[in-house]
Here is the input.
Amino acid sequence: MKIKSPIIKLIMSCLCSGSTYAIASPPLPDNSKIQASHISEKIPGTILSIQEQNTDLFTNASQRFLINYRSRGTKSEPIVTSGYILLPKGKFPKDGWPVLAWAHGTTGVADTCAPSGDYVGGSPCLSANRC
Here is the structure.
């Protein structure tokens, strides 16, 4: 897949620092192949997969990507984490797009609680294009 914007690299690096975007999406694909890979050999922040997603629920979005990347668990064990990259419509600004990174534990920290896993309807803020 060819990524259309150079800002993706910047946003991915921000996401890889531990942030997760919470926006509407279909459920995550089966990550068993990623989980079975030798993720302990990868450094935290290594992108394991990128999937382009539709932007139907976000009228101001030009592109949306689901990413899976290597991170660390609560006991520093290697884990796979997911997140979203959402790019706005419009001309790319000279100084780049502002980055909004949203990662909070109020929805829980278990795999089943991950907003990027199955977040039908998305957050009210992002769905209303107010962020």
The beta strands are 47-53, 61-72, 78-88.
